[in-house]
Amino acid sequence: MTLPNRSSRLSGFHHQSPPDRLAAVAAFAGLDAATVGHLADFGNLDPHLADRLIENVIGTMNVPVGIATNLKVDGRDVLVPMATEESSVVAAVCNAARQCYDAGGIVTSMSGPLMIAQVQLVQVRDPHSARVKILEKREEVKAACDACDPVLVSLGFRDLEVRVLDTLGGSMVITHLIVDTRDAMGANAVNSMAERLAPHFEAWTGGKVYLRILSNLADRRVARARAVWPVEAIGGQEVRDGMISAYQFAEADPYRAATHNKGIMNGVSAVVLATGNDTRAVEAGAHAYAARGGRYTSLSRWEVTADGDLAGVLELPMAVGLIGGATKLHPTARACLAILGVGTAEELARVTAAVGLAQNFSALKALATTGIQKGHMALHAQNIALMAGAVGEEVDAVARALVARGEVRVDIAAEELGRLRGRRGE
Ligand code: MEV
Fold it and tell me: Catalytic positions, please?
């Protein structure tokens, strides 16, 4: 294929309207009319709002929202919206929740709503003295932080930590501002505080400040979930022991732990996305937390209770909010929060951790028994049927044929589709 002479230097692109930008992109990429028409449909997100949320907007990317049923969290029945493109993720949570519902569901708690902002001070001649000088200024630091965001004042600044860090560039003095951001995720609030404090730190220590930014390792905002699955509800001792062994594998091996934790984040990120929160912040925090002991390991723990049942526990940082950013602006996020019925960021964090634990349960159970592919196969087969061009009732018919043949491939789907249409005389 010969491509037209193209330049990515689209002057004034940023100032154009979404349709004009789309036209420019279509010309650049040689998009056909059907593709342009598809991108021009913003679905249920107002193009003006989309254009305010991010830059250079040309369209939207719709992801399905499914509802996790059967969840009882802290004694309350909840329906949890999950936004994900991955099949089986929502079904897995429903199944796990059903199997512990009668035993009381999932119990959650939270360490607190504290975020950390970091200020990096370099070129300090006497870093240990500088550290203590900053600690001496606690009341001034608190006043400056609380002046940044009057709404937060009664909650605001909570604590000050200062470390001398040995780095490739010599000693650095790293200050942590620890702030109660309550129902906000808090990035804006703590970043403003760090920026405001920076000149003071320079004046007090004679050093130079470079970075002033939150830490996504939100280890003072840890959500916890625990549940017990009765051994008879999960299919007996052998299933239980296989699941424990799967956990022990993840605990010992970072290669397995990465996949184990990815499964947990399938659930967590889907709730975080559905509620308009920052999936990358929560992902970064989770994986850093999983390595906090110096070795990357499982975020969850699984053990046998005195009664022989299966107990699971999950702990991970959960920096999510109900105010600010897309959470308040995106109509789908607002609708998802209404379905969830949570009144505080803490409640949202706790339900999200519960979903992560349920997700992990189902993955371990599938892996320790039939394997993951069997459950995936039916939905995957439907996707393959769609890819082969099946429409309407053809999708199920082709998918069934693929599963029956045990070969879920696009070429086989095309063959089955041809046969089906042939039988119908098309
Ligand atoms: C797939 O998205 C997630 C799993 O790989 C998780 C796991 O292996 O524990 C099934």
Answer: 86, 262, 278, 376
